[in-house]
Write a structure and sequence with these properties.
By secondary structure, the protein is an all-alpha fold. It has helices at about 5-15, 25-40, 50-60, 65, 70-90, 95-110. The protein has one domain. Helices cover about 60% and strands about 0% of the residues. The chain starts with a helix and ends in a 32-residue tail after the last helix.
Length: about 140
């Protein structure tokens, strides 16, 4: 199974809707993207504003704006984020496919009886058996 198929399967296990517009879920994912950007910025002393904005998206404060958004524009941005993320991995000297497989394997360790547990905002919770990805071996 390739990376995209694994991510789709993982999202299905999370109960994410497919083939229909879900503003709450889409806003949550914008918040999760911002959370990852904030995590990345922590390497450079962080940006508390990005983390605060991420939390606001995850709590649902932008659900109405999401419902009224230009979805084609957001889809373009989402695809661009994926392309740029692969470029970052390449720039870091990573074995991109190996690193992505390792992250998928780590995400699969969040499964409990084939399901993912979520918090009140819909974010997946890391259960006791969760294993963080180890990407050191994928960096040159």
């Amino acid at each position: 199974m390739d990376f995209v198929e694994r991510v789709l399967a993982w999202n299905r296990a999370a109960g994410n809707t497919e083939g229909e517009f879900n503003p709450r879920q889409a806003a949550l994912y914008v918040g999760l993207i911002l959370e990852e950007v904030a995590e990345m910025l922590e390497e450079f002393r962080g940006d508390i504003y990005v983390r605060q904005l991420a939390e606001r998206f995850k709590r649902g404060e932008f659900d109405e704006a999401m419902a009224e958004s230009d979805r084609a524009h957001l889809a373009d941005a989402g695809c661009d984020i994926a392309v740029v993320a692969v470029g970052l991995l390449m720039s870091l000297g990573a074995d991109v496919q190996g690193a992505l497989r390792e992250v998928c394997d780590s995400n699969d360790s969040k499964l409990v009886d084939g399901r993912l547990l979520k918090d009140g905002n819909g974010k997946v919770i890391k259960p006791a058996g969760y294993r963080q990805p180890n990407l050191e071996g994928f960096l040159s």
